[in-house]
Design brief:
This protein has 402 residues and is of the alpha+beta class. The chain folds into 3 domains: 74-145, no CATH class; 185-269, Roll (Pdz3 Domain), CATH 2.30.42; 274-401, no CATH class. 59% of the residues lie in helices and 18% in strands. It contains 13 helices and 10 strands. The strands form 4 sheets. A 4-stranded antiparallel sheet has the order 7-6-8-9. It has a two-stranded antiparallel sheet with strand order 1-2. Strands 3-10 form a two-stranded antiparallel sheet. A hairpin with a 5-residue loop joins strand 4 and strand 5 (200-207).
Length: 402
C-alpha cells in the first residue's frame, strides 16, 4: 500500500510539472497539441478543440506536446519522409524543393510549399510504415511553421512557458510544507547535532530552558540510543516523540560512555499560523536550494556521491515516510517536488533550464538556433542525467539490500 501511494505521489509531481507547461502555453497563445496522463502510446484518447487528451500506457507523470519547439530544418524532411521518398519519386522531388526552401530560412514560403508535399504523400503508394512516418513528420513540420510555434514567440513568452513547470513544483512544495507546519506536534525541547555531511544525529546539541528535556535531566552532549527499549536513529527518535501524544517515554542515553535511563513526556506544541508557516516554508525552500547548488561542485570533487538517489530510492523513502505518518509523508513529497524544481532549472538540455538558456541566447541573437545544435548539446545533458541515475541506482540497491 505504502509503495503504491509513493509511486502515485511521484507521478503526481511530474504530472503537475507538465500541467504548468500546458496551461501556461495555452494562456500565452501556444496551443499544445497533446496532454497525457502518463506517457504514450495511448490507452485511451479524445480530441477537444484541437488538443488530444489521453491516458498513456506508461503510468508515470505526464506528457505535453507544445508545437514547434524547434525551427523546421531540411533534416526534418529527411528523418520523417526519407522512407517515403525512397518509395515515391514524386514525394522525393517535392521533398527536395521543401528542403531547399527550409535551408534558405524562408518559413513563410515553406508554409505555402507544404500542401503540395501533403498531396504527394496522400496520392503515393506507400507501405504502412512509410506512410505513418511521413504523416507524423508532416504534422510536426506543420506545427513548426504555424504562427503559434514555440520558436517563433518572444523570449519572455518562451521563458515563461518553460519556467512554469519548475515553478509549479515549487508552489506545490510550499503548500505541502505550509500544511505540515500548521499541524500541531509534540516536542521535548532539544536540538539535534548534525554530522559532517549535514544529516541529523541523536546527539543533543542544545537543551532548551524550561523544556520537558531540561526538567527530565537531559544535557547537551547526551546521545539518545533507544526509546522504550528500541534502538533509534534521528528520524526514529523524532517519530517516537511526535507519536507519543504526551505519553511518558523511556530514553536510553549514552553519557560519558555510560548508559543512563531518563523518563520524559513530550509537550504538545500548537501549529503555526498560515502566514508564519508559509514564511517558514519559503525559508526551508531556500535551504534546500543552497544544498542543491552546493551538491554539484562537491560531486565534481568526489564528495557527496553516496547522497545521490534514483527514482528507486526516492520511492522507497516516500514509502517509509508514508508508514511513519501523514506529516512525514507530505514533507518528503514536498522535498521531492522542490528537488524536481531546482534540478530542472540546471542550464542543461533537455532540462527546462537548458531550454530557458537557449531561449535567452536566441533572443540576444535575434534568430532561432537550429535543431541540430539542440540535439548535439542535449547529448551532454542526457549523458550527465544517465550518469547520475546509475550512481543513484547503485547507491539505492546497496542501501536497500543492506
Amino acid at each position: 500500500m505504502s509503495l503504491a501511494v509513493a509511486i502515485l505521489a511521484l507521478a503526481f509531481l511530474v504530472l503537475v510539472h507538465e500541467a504548468g507547461h500546458f496551461f501556461t502555453a495555452r494562456a500565452t497563445g501556444m496551443r499544445p497539441r497533446k496532454f497525457y496522463l502518463g506517457f504514450p502510446p495511448a490507452l485511451a484518447k479524445v480530441r477537444r478543440k484541437g488538443i488530444e487528451y489521453g491516458i498513456g500506457a506508461i503510468p508515470l507523470g505526464g506528457y505535453v506536446k507544445i508545437p514547434g519547439m524547434h525551427r523546421p530544418a531540411p533534416s526534418d524532411v529527411d528523418v520523417h519522409l526519407g522512407r517515403a521518398a525512397q518509395e515515391s519519386r514524386e514525394v522525393a522531388e517535392v521533398g527536395e524543393r521543401l528542403k531547399a526552401v527550409l535551408a534558405e530560412g524562408d518559413m513563410d514560403r515553406a508554409a505555402t510549399e507544404l500542401p503540395e508535399l501533403h498531396a504527394a504523400v496522400e496520392q503515393a503508394e506507400l507501405t504502412p510504415l512509410a506512410r505513418k512516418s511521413a504523416e507524423r513528420g508532416l504534422t510536426d513540420i506543420d506545427d513548426g511553421l504555424g504562427a503559434d510555434a514555440y520558436w517563433r514567440q518572444r523570449t519572455t513568452r518562451k521563458v515563461l512557458v518553460i519556467l512554469a513547470g519548475p515553478a509549479t513544483n515549487y508552489l506545490v512544495a510550499i503548500v505541502l510544507f505550509t500544511i505540515v507546519l500548521m499541524q500541531g506536534t509534540h516536542q521535548i525541547g532539544v536540538r539535534l547535532a548534525a554530522a559532517g555531511d549535514g544529516t541529523a544525529t541523536t546527539r543533543l546539541a542544545q537543551v532548551m530552558e524550561d523544556s520537558p528535556a531540561a526538567a527530565a535531566g537531559l544535557r547537551p552532549g547526551d546521545r539518545i540510543v533507544a526509546v522504550d527499549g528500541t534502538r533509534v536513529g534521528a528520524a526514529g527518535l523524532l517519530d517516537h516523540i511526535q507519536r507519543s501524544d504526551g505519553r511518558e517515554l523511556t530514553l536510553t542515553v549514552q553519557r560519558d560512555g555510560q548508559p543512563v535511563t531518563i523518563e520524559v513526556a513530550a509537550r504538545e506544541v500548537e501549529g503555526r499560523s498560515v502566514w508564519d508557516a508559509t514564511g517558514r516554508a519559503v525559508e526551508i525552500s531556500g535551504v534546500v536550494g543552497r544544498s542543491v547548488l552546493g551538491f554539484f561542485p562537491n560531486l565534481v570533487r568526489g564528495e557527496d556521491r553516496d547522497e545521490v538517489s534514483s527514482v528507486v530510492g526516492i520511492t522507497d523513502a516516500s514509502a517509509q515516510a508514508f508508514d511513519r505518518g501523514a506529516q512525514d509523508f507530505l514533507f518528503i513529497v514536498g522535498l521531492i517536488s522542490l528537488s524536481l524544481a531546482y534540478l530542472n532549472l540546471l542550464p542543461l538540455l533537455p532540462l527546462d533550464g537548458g531550454h530557458i538558456a537557449f531561449s535567452i541566447v536566441e533572443g540576444v541573437r535575434r534568430r532561432a538556433i537550429g535543431r541540430e545544435v539542440y540535439e548535439r548539446v542535449s547529448i551532454i545533458g542526457i549523458a550527465l542525467v544517465l550518469f547520475l541515475f546509475m550512481i543513484g541506482l547503485t547507491n539505492d540497491v546497496g542501501r536497500i539490500s543492506s
